[in-house]
Each structure stands twice: as C-alpha cells, then as structure tokens.
C-alpha cells in the first residue's frame, strides 16, 4: 500500500479503519484489502517477536503429532498426487465395503505390496504381511474365490481402474454395477413395443370424472450378472523385485491399467457371453441397417449413416456415440452427398489446401470413437451407433495377485498373475417397436455387411 501508512499497533489500526476516507481507499478492491491486511500482519511480526515464536512452536508441535500418528502418516503416504484427480479413496471406483479395504493401511503402493507378496520374498516382515492378507481374504469366504493368489488392497485396485478408465471405451460410458457377491440379479423392464404401452406395460389413458380405471401390469425381467474371471499375466525379471522395485511400480501404474482396459473393452465389444461378458455387438436388441441397393463392397455411404441415426432410440440420441473401426476413416473422410448431377464431401467438408485441417470428431453432432476392437471395414459392426447407458458392467470389486519364481526359474523371471472378476451384458433384450412407424429402434445400431 504505497499511499497508506501501515499501522504499527491496534490503536493505529482502529484509527485507520475509523476514518471513512482511509477505509474507502483500503477496501477499494479485494486486492487492496488483502495487501493491507498482509502488510499489517508482517509489521506485527517484526514488532512482536513473540508472535513468530508462537507460530514456530505450534508448527513443530503439529509436525511432531503427525510423526507420532502412524495411521495419519500412512494416509499421507497414500495420497494420490496426480494433479488431475482427487485422492483415490474419494474416487467413484473405491468401495469402502470391498474385500481389500482391510489391507489399505498396510500397503500404500504397488512396490510395498509386491515387496511383501513376491514369491521370492524372505524375512519375518514378509511372512507377517502374507499372513495378514490371507487372514482378511479367508474372512470373505466364498465371495473371494481362492485362485492361489493374494487379495489386492482396495486402494490399489481402485487406482488401477481409475487409470484404466482413461484408456477404456466401454467402461467409462457404461452403467457399472458393484457386485457384493459372485452373482447379482439386476432388474430390467421387458419392453418390446411402445405402440400401446411403455416400459414393459405401463399404460396411460384419459378418463372422465368418476370413470373406471384400467389395470396395467408392467413386465419386469431380471438380468443375472455373474462374475467372470479375467486374468492378466506377465513375466518380470527378478532384478526388478530385488534391485528396482520402483521400476516395477511404474510398470504396474501404467502397463497393467492399459492392459486391463484393453481386454475388458474387447470382451464388452464382441464377447460371446460364454465364460466372458456378452458384447454389445452381439446384443439381441441390436438392429442392423441394411446396405443400399447396388452399394459397393466395403464402401460407406452417407445414406448408411443417416439411416443408422434414424434407428437410435430418440431418448438415447443425446448419449449415443459412433464407434468405428479405424479402417473406416478413408471412406468416412471421402463420402459425398449427391445433389442432382453434382455433390460434395459430407463429413470433412473442404479440407485445407495443405492438408493441415483436423478432421471433425463428431458425426451428426455425436462423438466419434475410432478403435481397432470392432468389426473390420465392410463387415457388420464396423460402424456402430451406441448408447452405452444400456450396457451393464458388473464389477466384483475384488482383485487378486500371485507371483511365481519357479515357473520361469531357468529364465530368472517371476511370473505375475492378476485376476479380476467382472461381467458385462446389454441391459435391453430386444429392439423396440415405436408407437408410430414400423422400423424398430434400439440403443445398439450397427451397419450391415457391405
């Protein structure tokens, strides 16, 4: 505050605040007010050394309390310092009722966890840790099947899924159902037509005053989510466990989440439902948009896109997204709309002369996801219009890990196996006949083979 004198004591502060002109200058803006308060605080610290001593003593006391509090210190060590996210314990993937919660205080990082559970670990501390994991795992009985591995702490499991979410296509958009047991029934409305009722049998009608009411009986169905076993396997040099456990932690933090997202997505996309999830491409409710008359093999026409859009449930359009094989890009980029004897490109518009323009990532206003996980160009499902809100993912929310030094003993490697239990299935069992019109509608639309 260059134009205002900084008060040296309480009396001078009261005098400054009591003067209307001075107070108006002090409170001219939030910045001037803050500057004035900070300047006064600094002046007090200089004129009264006791204040600085009090601050120092209180800081040392609080820091000492933290060091004496093991649980608090452990929680500080487990903080997720990723600036893009909240602490893991607050993420939507963390379940405070999951089997691995009891291990969170013991293992804050992957390096700590594998240092204790590695098959080659020796020493009393490792044996005690393994015994503690086994005790918690056994207490859950049949809800955490024994695969010969160790239960993974919930903190690490939820972090694994949080990172995987950034790489996934289906999970980040689907409806995820926590599974407290290996099999969970989930309600559904068995709806096939909106011609005379909605939601599987709910009817609405107009009546005169005192008129009789009409019964309605919605047909409720049930989907059975049964946890399937997804196993991730890798072979890691023993040196990483003995000499470079930090490098192993980096591997777990990056490679395993990406691998988990990859194999989940593959099953959620085209899984056959036998020992694995039922993918949305195989949904019984999916509708198939036929090719145009005389359409060339492997081609994509604007009419294909428009007709696929028209088969989406109207209530799902604002959530739906296009999921296309990357091989479809050349056809999408060059498809044209014929107008009389001329025509023009549709999706790309007029590209820059030097080819530097970025292609749009929407079609008809909805996002486009390119992937290699759907059907290849020219086959049914190479272009899909999907509302993933109608896809259910059952997440058992319990993972296990096991290491073996014997299996690859001759190669001086440790075999690592991580097991997740998860299921996936479309939430609707058949396409819906609209109130008016004959073309069925669905949240799963795909273009037929061409």
TrEMBL record:
Its main location: virion. InterPro entries: Phage_capsid, Phage_capsid-like_C. It is found in: Virion. It comes from the Bacteria. Residues 148-434 form the Phage capsid-like C-terminal domain. Coiled coil: none annotated. Pfam families: Phage_capsid. NCBIfam families: major_cap_HK97 (TIGR01554). This is Phage major capsid protein. It comes from Actinacidiphila polyblastidii.
